[in-house]
Design goal:
The chain is mainly beta and about 400 residues long. Helices cover about 15% and strands about 45% of the residues. The protein has a four-stranded antiparallel beta sheet, with no helix packed on it. β4 and β5 form a beta hairpin. The longest helix is centred in the last third of the chain and has 22 residues. The protein is globular, with a radius of gyration of 25 Å.
């Protein structure tokens, strides 16, 4: 006898049934002009060759996929891994795409031909994050993994340059300090040395000085401790301040002038998986487990609008000009305009829809039933009068 995969054939709690119905209803919405891919999406980056209208996404099915947002252009798919792909980066020369995987390695492909190239093996657990940069005349890959290590690689040869250890639990994200670096005058103005920030499941944010010959941690006894638990995302803004997203339900701005002490706290709620910065309108965007994509005023910390569309956890965000791209476990890519006029229109439309939904859910008043049109005091007086009549 074959086994059934129909959820109706298994015991389900009333909560799980209600949640399934909620997701089924919400999945039909068209908010954010959803583009669907065949599997869950774990990460997104802008396509540097088309930075306003295309992205690359990392899929749980093991693929990296290029998605055009405004045209019917066919997706380019990069295949190889048989386990989920967690993170993506483009090589500094623009010729390769690289992706971290649950199979403990980083894959790379030719961006144009889609053919697999070097595979970087060295981690002993899931690769969670990758970034690329140029040091001197070498293109460099940096990867962080659930084994709590960071590895620096030569992209061309696949060789390890450095292995960095300091985190006590998995490394979740990496970011290059845009302010502190040293230029190499003999390498077409490439960087001779950089500072990289890393965040982990141990709630710590650590800093590393890296060049081709050496790598060391800065202040290893004094990691940045801004959150109560895992720090999922690191993003620098144009001023060089660091924004973070955490499982403690907040996103924070860590001020460089305060030695990366907390300057701003955004109360997103639930797990915050991603944070993005929109510089023109001075907005901060947060997203995570509660499915909403929330837009905040950087000056006042007030919530400007919460976009509703995803029906599973939102896993990542990418800024494309004044548009924010969100991806999630529901396998959709959604695009949200952050232009002030478009934000006002979206908020007005959402308010109208919520008002209509509330009206539809209101109880039907039976003929002769005047409850609901009386105030609480009037109902109490009526009850007393009825009691007197008895």
């Amino acid at each position: 006898m074959s086994a059934s995969s129909d959820p109706d054939h298994f015991f389900q709690t009333s909560h799980s049934l209600a949640e399934s119905k909620r997701k089924s209803r919400k999945s039909k919405n068209k908010n954010g002009a959803p583009i669907r891919v065949p599997s869950k999406i774990l990460a997104v980056i802008a396509d540097p060759s088309h930075p306003t209208n295309a992205v690359f996404v990392a899929e749980s099915a093991g693929n990296v996929r290029r998605v055009a947002l405004d045209t019917d252009e066919k997706d380019a798919v990069y295949k190889g891994p048989t386990t989920p792909v967690t993170s993506i980066a483009i090589s500094p020369d623009g010729q390769r795409i690289l992706a971290g995987s649950w199979d403990k390695s980083v894959w790379s492909w030719s961006l144009s031909s889609h053919h697999p190239l070097v595979r970087y093996r060295g981690h002993t657990d899931f690769v969670k994050c990758v970034l690329t940069l140029r040091l001197g005349q070498k293109d460099i890959l940096v990867s962080g993994a659930a084994d709590a290590s960071i590895i620096v690689w030569d992209i061309q040869s696949g060789g390890k340059l450095h292995v960095l250890k300091g985190h006590t639990r998995g490394v979740l994200d990496l970011a290059i300090d845009p302010i502190i670096h040293h230029l190499d005058e003999n390498a077409n103005h490439g960087m001779k040395e950089v500072i990289i920030f890393s965040s982990g499941s141990d709630r710590e944010i650590r800093r590393w000085r890296i060049n081709l010959d050496t790598a060391e941690e800065l202040d290893p006894e004094k990691p940045i401790l801004a959150h109560e638990t895992s720090v999922y995302a690191l993003r620098f803004d144009a001023d060089g301040d660091l924004w973070t997203a955490s499982a403690d339900g907040t996103a924070k701005c860590l001020s460089r002038s305060r030695e990366f002490g907390t300057d701003t706290t955004i109360p997103h709620g639930d797990y915050v998986r991603a944070v993005a910065i929109e510089e023109v309108g001075a907005y901060v965007v947060t997203a995570g487990r509660n499915e909403d994509v929330k837009v905040w005023d950087r000056g006042t910390n007030d919530l400007v609008h919460a976009f509703e569309g995803h029906y599973e956890e939102v896993t990542d965000l990418a800024m494309l000009g004044q548009r924010c791209v969100s991806v999630g476990i529901d396998g959709t890519v959604r695009v949200w305009s952050l232009k002030p006029g478009d934000l006002r229109t979206a908020k007005s439309k959402q308010d109208e829809e919520q008002h209509a939904h509330t009206a539809d859910d209101a109880p039907v008043q039976e003929e002769g039933d005047i409850s609901g049109v009386l105030t609480e005091e009037e109902e109490r007086e009526l009850a007393e009068l009825m009691h007197d009549d008895e």
